[in-house]
Design goal:
Helix content is 33%, strand content 30%. The protein is an alpha+beta fold.
Length: 315
Amino acid sequence: MMKKHIIQNLSLDEQLALKMRKITKHAIPMAPLTEPQETLKAFRLMTHGYERCIFLAQKDKETVGFIMLMKGPRPSLARVMGAVSPHYQGVGIGYELWQAVLSNLKYYPKISQLQSRTFASLTSGKVFLERANFTLVEHMIWLEFDLNHELPQKIQEKLQRPELDSIQVISLQDLSKLRDDWEQVCWQLEIEASQAIPTQLGTLQPSLEEWRSVQATFQSEQTLLAVQDQELLGVIKLSEPRDDYVNINFTGVAASHRRKGVSSLLKSEAFKYARKHEVSRITTQNHSMNQAILKANLGCGFKETNQLLDYLYEL
């Protein structure tokens, strides 16, 4: 038992954030991670308001595990994220971290549900959550495209539609030169697209200020926008190249322009971005209930590689 080694942390610093990132990378190697220089900012954004539920596990003064509570899609639902170094798994550390969070939920009386995630390929994560009485409710499908291949012929033909000729794909910096309200329109489009995703758990709906803070962690070229006569039609947000791949973090198209080839156009530009950075794969995630988008991604040549399982804990 390690209870005496579980400590509360109310103030994350850069050194600790990078240690937590390293633990996550070793314990969950398939998880996409924030770039090292943005890790502290990302963790602080995610845990803002829930600082009483950040706990560390230490052994011989070394941090070997962590757990933290994060903002969920609504006040009654919070997300739980944690990991334990592989060498220290299976000895009760995860259980003690989990109990520490449960003991401090008294400070957050509005919370009635907790959400957590693990990969289908990660047996230890599934076993832990099921033993902690979490229930599997839905999942995200992980997809991958081999950039040594070209887009299917039917998608290439789709991109030749005359109605796409007047649509430009530009960067966020380019849009800021076209429109004074560029932040507002980007934020509104992302909210609109997120609300259209079919999911039992809901999606995060950041305020404009929260959106600005998150957007500041991305380079301008990582956000590509489909624009027609200065009207914003769609957005695709990409990760920085890492471990020979680029991840599509988010794709959204205005309701008025869905099923008209805008998403395919944005994906083709994302492929160009990835090839420019000389990676061999591009990945994305798809809600299991969003069958229309899943069909579209498979039609573009993506292949399923894993599943991210969403679990729910009722308080």
